[in-house]
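The protein record quoted for completeness.
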Amino acid sequence: MDVIPPRTPPGTMELLPLQQVAFQLMVARIQAAFERFGFLPIETPAFEVADVLLSKSGGETEKQVYFVQSTGSLEQGNAPDLALRFDLTVPTARYVAEHEHDLAFPFRRYQIQRVYRGERAQKGRYREFLQCDIDVIGRGSLSVQHDAEIPALIHQVFTDLDIGGFEINLNNRKVLKGLFTSLGVADAEAQTAALRTIDKLDKLPPETVRSALTDTDIGLSEEAATSLLTFADFQGDAAATLAHLDGLGIEDPVFAEGVGELRTVAEGLTAYGIPESQWRINLAIARGLDYYTGTVYETFLTDHRGIGSVCSGGRYDDLASLYTKSTLPGVGISIGLTRLFYALDQAGLVADASTVDVLVTQMDPALSAEYAGIGRDLRDAGLNTEVHLQPAKLGKQLAYADRIGARFAVILGSRELEEGVVTVKDLTTGGQESVPRGDLAAALATR
């Protein structure tokens, strides 16, 4: 029988064990930051009922959805009624609407799970990837103060990850919508299309964006497109940006509401003690998904802006309206950790890690009970310990210890047994020393 060549599906990421540990350490730090701010975990199924999932996907995401169909359904010619989740926000809206009467509001949830998108596989872009999300959802209303808490949490996460400088960019879609109205663009579909186009300014040249704004799909005049691009290009600190917005003389109430919310978020970030060197109001940020209604966020690594946003999100006031008559406004963010990990690894910023502290080598099969006892003692002391059970030369066992990332190797032969000691080899420094058997666990735990 022919051997089927093993191959990873395109658009997925598989890691070697020491890389996987480094990845999981990042997950643990993100989870710890979420919990430090008082968020609770939930999980939702990998797939949702298709009409629920696609009820309001927004943007172009619905074109990338994977449908789920059993072989039995295929044989019967039935249309698929399940689809893999493409993000965690829509399933969360469904979850809150379904469990509304069992939850405490504001509902503060975090969710760390994989999502699926059928986009073209390429470096740094995945069809399956891990997202780390937080959301605060209110019932009836949700204070805009939460819109300031979210970037404060983003700051906590990226400080804890310790992966270099970062900058949190924020804006408010109400500001942009009010601007559109003042420019004579009142049609809701045209405004939405213009928002998606403006959001591409960090990826496309301004003239390309201008052409898209003035084509027949959006239909802005050349004058309106110029005004919009000039508006989006404004540079300044928060105080200067807010003063600039106040000075534009735009009397649209939606615009004024958006500026007021931006001011509240800026004041909140100051109250949280977040230095303005790590956040700014960026009037070009719009976010491409339709369900965002107010504050929006994009986070960039200052030394690696080429990889794009590594954490994004915003306010949505009516996403759950399709599942319930209750008003359930929310605000949240998402970190695409798979893509972030890939980018950091390519930049040489990810160090392999291991969950193994100690390897107990096997010098003499007749001493297997001694080795098992050492392993038990070390585990009782809180050290992750593997006992080598395969007879092999010491050099080969030490090479194995190095490959699994163990920090120490413990060596016990007949000489050490007679003297009541063990030899400890530090695989990081290469040094070794004898340690009394009874002191081994305490000595390694200290180191």
Q: What stands out?
A: The chain is about 40% helix and 20% strand. The CA atoms of residues 139 and 328 lie 5 Å apart. The first strand starts at residue 40 and ends at 41. The chain has two domains: 21-346, 358-446.
